[in-house]
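2024-03-11 09:14:02 DEBUG pipeline.ingest accepted 1 chain
2024-03-11 09:14:02 DEBUG pipeline.ingest length=161
2024-03-11 09:14:03 DEBUG pipeline.predict start
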Amino acid sequence: MRILALAGLLASIAAPLSAQAFDPEARLKELCITLPTPDKPVANYVKAVRTGNLVFLAGHGPCGDFNRPDIQGRVPSQKSIEQGYEIAKLTAICLLASLKQEVGMVLSDQGFDRQPAVINGASDLFVKVFGDRGKHARSAVGMYALPFNITTEIEMIVEVE
């Protein structure tokens, strides 16, 4: 993803070669999405580091208390793919909140191989918010453990201008 204008730090994300104006804040409003205040890191690290035109976002789970049963559990024994998808959307919203302030992994059962269907929750949200500008490279891997037993954790690197 590439951010072209950063008014209020989240002004637009654009695919290379596309320079037309775009307002993701308006698109978020159209989608009835309100970005939360990003959580403070849970250990000795920072949520985002900007170096030149790149913003590196640390692995995120959904914003808020990690000890909530609605965002914890393994796919598919404790969470359905559909529930994982929704948790990935919440994680993407938290990433956007951190990106605005500055700016996947799936907790899986052994043998589960549909992590991409879960992480589509984040990918689909980015495309809904940013259109073709939101299309991106990604990984979707299963993990034996994630912090606080959260269902998804997603990292992001964004180029900004």
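2024-03-11 09:14:41 DEBUG pipeline.report The chain has one domain: 2-160.
2024-03-11 09:14:41 DEBUG pipeline.predict end
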